[in-house]
Fold:
Amino acid sequence: MASSVMPTPRRGGGPQPPAAVSTIGLRKSYGDKTVLDGIDLRIPAGSVFALLGPNGAGKTTTVQILSTLLTADGGQAQVAGHDVATQPDGVRAAIGVTGQFAALDDLLTAEENLLLMADLLRLGRREGRSRTRELLQRFDIADVAHKRAATFSGGMRRRLDLAMTLVGDPQVIFLDEPTTGLDPRSRRTMWDTVRSLVAGGTTVFLTTQYLEEADQLADRIAVLDGGRIVAEGTADELKAQIPGSHVRLRFTDPAEYERAAAAFPGAARDDENLALRVAGDAGLDALRALLDRLDAAGIRAADFSVHTPDLDDVFLALTGHGSTETGTSTPLHVKETLR
Ligand SMILES: Nc1ncnc2c1ncn2[C@@H]1O[C@H](COP(=O)(O)OP(=O)(O)O)[C@@H](O)[C@H]1O
Ligand SMILES: [Mg+2]
Structure:
């Protein structure tokens, strides 16, 4: 938490925005377990960055090091122009952090929580009040301003927690798994909130296990796995790194499956599910050609689906294992079309 408030110089109009966060060779071990094995990052000011990784990948460890709550074993890190090791006070004054578990006082109302934070930041009575009023409005909690935090839903708690982070007007905000455990509707509200933060010029460093979340929010995404960044880029750049679209043909009759496999020798076999994976463009012309080919061979598939790559596929391709999140892949199912 910020212990003082410094006037925060905003970005100039230079061609390349300065880095809000940069690390070189960041390392951290617990005993003989290496959690971070040399992490290099550069996050331009005013952008949203997502650190994507499964449970236990080291996301929270990274956030804790960058927010000076934890000391790295090696490497360097700068946040808002301050070195985390040698200028921790400068870092703290420039950042806001919200964790997976909200730091609210349940006995206080939403308004009291915000006013308390303003007091801790020594904002002064007038400024504290006006800042509190503004944040209650902005986070859509004004109508419950006088209710105790204990009565809030998960989504409201996260919003209040984030509002508290913003009392000090930080340049860089760390959101550690901001939507884990939230229902889909609250998750979407949170996404809107994050988007509005960025529109105001704040740099957001978020961690997530949700591929869709990174895809939705982040300008750039880094995939953390086994203590290393295994991929970094925009969602589109990451998607471009993996094999393209494919069509999955599934059969119920093993003989039919074998005939199809013979007709499509290039297709990947999934014998267990009697399914073939035919690589190629998922465009209409390619699909039509595929259907014509099936027709010509007199083959009837039980169902087929068209898959365009999403971040889930990226994760699988890069790490050799899936993400913990399932169900984010949204193949276009065209069942029974081939009857
Ligand atoms: N204080 C600690 N002592 C020992 N091991 C820890 C400690 N904190 C985290 N770890 C281990 O470090 C790894 C990374 O943890 P963490 O950064 O919390 O991952 P994530 O946030 O990506 O789920 C995990 O295997 C975790 O068990
Ligand atoms: Mg974590």
